[in-house]
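Thread: Newbie trying to understand structure tokens

Hi all, I'm a second-year student working on a class project, and my supervisor (Dr. K.) asked me to get a predicted structure for one chain before our next meeting. I've only ever worked with sequences, so writing a 3D structure as a token string is new to me. If someone could post the tokens and maybe explain what I'm looking at, I'd be very grateful. Here's the chain:
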Amino acid sequence: MKSVINDIRIKWNYVDSRENYTKENVLIDGDSIAKHRIADTKFFEFKTVHTGAHTDESIINYFDTLRDRFAGPPLRMSLEVMPTSSSLEVGDRVRVTLPQIRNFTDIAPFDQTIDRVFEVQQVTTDWTTGGMKLQLFGSSQKSGEISRTSANSVLLDAFYLSAGVNINTVLTVSAGAVTANGTLTGNASSTDGAIYYYIGDLTINAGVTVTITENVQLRIRGTLIVNGKIDGAGNGATGGTTTTQFVGGGTTDTIRTMDYLTGGYDPLKDIDFDYGEQGYLCNTIPSAALNAYGTGTATTIQETDTFDVSSSYVDDVDLTWYSATVQKAISQGIEEELPYFSLTNDQQTSSLTGYPLDLRGNSGGGGVPLMRRGFTFGSYEALYSIVANGGAGGNGGAGLLIISRGMVFGGSGEVDLSGGASSSGGSWTSAGGDVFYAGSGAPGAPGGLLLLLDGAVTNPDIDDTVFTANFGDATHGVGATEVDRSFLAVPGEHWNLYTVASWPHGDAVWNGAPSAALENTAATDAAHRIQYIPADITPAFSEDSAPDINYRTYKPIQFIEGSPSNQNVYLGKGVTISKDNQRFAYSQGGQGFNAASITIQAGIENGIAEHTISIPATEDLACSEMMAFNDTSDVFIEGRPEPNTNAGKLYIWTRSGNTWTNAQTITWPTASAFFGRTCAMRGNGRSQGFFVGTRPVGTNNRVYYYDNTGASWTQQQTLTNPGQSNSLLAEDNSISVSENSNWVIMGDVQHGSNDGCAVVYERTGTGATTWTFRQRLTITTGTSLNFLGRQVAVDATGLTFAVSSEYLVSGFKQGRIEIWQRDITAYNHLQTIYGPTDSVGSYDATFGRAISM
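---
Reply by user tm_fold:
Sure, no problem. This is what the structure looks like when written as tokens:
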């Protein structure tokens, strides 16, 4: 049994910052265990195997050979052979036929003799006789199948919907195909505002161009088929402006004393270069210029100075003389090429991390200006003046991140993320008619294409036929020709040293320009990367990993209690906290016993009472159990359903600094409506509104939506449980608004003869907010009186909903929580969380009375 291996544990993807492995594959061979019992676990650890180049599928494939060899006890034998077999070497496979020896590893009947392939593991030779001995190895059992962890997609379906905008709301999409030109607008980082998703296979039709800007992230829950063009050329990081002045302003530098022994003074270190916006890929450096040396004095440079065209008085500033010059002019990107990324797929939070948020190409900086120098030979004093501006730099290419379950390029498909062109420098004409040009700006570098594949799908072949990633054009002065010093003594020429220097910084020469110009040079290989997304396999806990597991414990950070001598205070009957965690509010008193009030406290830990709202006895019955902050804790609402014969009121408070003011009071006009019995707020409150519920006697509950239309909040819409004749919608504050402010869910325990339900609305339309009914969440239990919808909660993005109930079991109520997940228009019931039972089996009916997400 020591030679059998049927339990393999592989740890890989070592993360230096955590000093631990973050991936583990467990390979269990059930067929081998059934026949030979479980063997000792075989452990492997690979520090240099990471998710950038390997997947869970790869790991299984790597170990298939090992499992095939040792799934059963291996067959070993020594065999003496004739010298004619001297060509055999270790690792060779030979067929061995031994009619005299029975092969007991064959399937019954066991009457077969050995006639099979063995592997040569050792060869020894008797040099006196020429005889040879072979040590042979053979497996006795084929390894059993192991389910592929990456054969299907490894990202949850919900991931694709967790952020961003549906592509079919931005582009013209018909039957899964983009049929017209359009633009996907990105951001400086591929965060929520730059994410576009599509559910299903998506084709960009031939002849269609989809333009992208900055960084764009595509999430395609299917295969992306590119028959048209995705164009992000020159749409990335913004290039530097023209070079017009010295540091501190002005076109004339201060008088400098030249040092004859060191070759003079480098004026470029005082030039005020605009390096442009930093991108992710490559370094850029602008074109060089010519310096014109006048023969006037240091303080009297004149346009009419005589100009001697000779190597003594005209010099090319080619960025090779001074290392300070080169470093001054270079605009640096972050990476010279797209590296492999250590990706983390966390299905508990439906998140994928580890990729860069900025893939744009680095922009080009402004070019070297043309400078004229006057000097006096006696003191070696020189004065530099800018006589022609350096050209503007080119934009970098846009960055494109694609997360999909496959990608295919058609015959006319193309992605272009090339850098943008720079502009030429200005010119200056000497008194003798000689024309000199300032340097062109640096062309932009290409943006990066990162393709992350979800599942074991075939990766596309990305080369320069489908992916264009060139450095931009460097535009030169009209008539300019590339020159070297040997030609500078020839008068009457149009000169410009325009060697373009944009390159991956791995090739950079810090004290000189690169050997070859890279304008229009392709960087296809450096600018793209394809990786497989790893499966979410949590490593088994071990003592070694203990330091890397973060346990979260909760402890009281503040304890507020009422006076023991003052009973019936009901302190904390209503409590709410702002989403920015800067303030919370709590109520006390009321119920006809003590003066009621609400305290707003600034600061969660060791905070101070910022404001106290006193509630008169005529309005204190519920003591404002219903209250809410907006996201930034500068708007606070609290409902009082009792005033005016239970008509109800809602008070709106706004904060300026630390001062709270009653900005508006909404009084319901009809008695017995209990207006304010439910309230919830979305977004920042001032512009995005809130919900207020009513409980009119003898009719259905309603929830009203209010928006701030300028000076005040006004009612915009009434929300109901459609078609329900006896509704308790949002009773006991069973209402929840998603953090992105696009979804609201409300419970209705009275729906369907008290079976209950939850009602989901989505914010739709443009301009004024409109709430559209989307779904009624119900569940069939086989019994009635489930009271589903007692409390509700929705996650930040409106993808997951939780609804509690009091499920009737054998005449007793049991608290439960039902979980749903939204997939575009489908709402899938995922799980039921059961309340606990006590030692005698009684159910906990209070389980789920309060839930949040």
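A couple of things are worth pointing out once you decode it. Residues 147-151, 290-327, 478-518, 538-553 have pLDDT under 50 and may be disordered. Residues 1-74 form one domain. Feel free to ask follow-ups in this thread.
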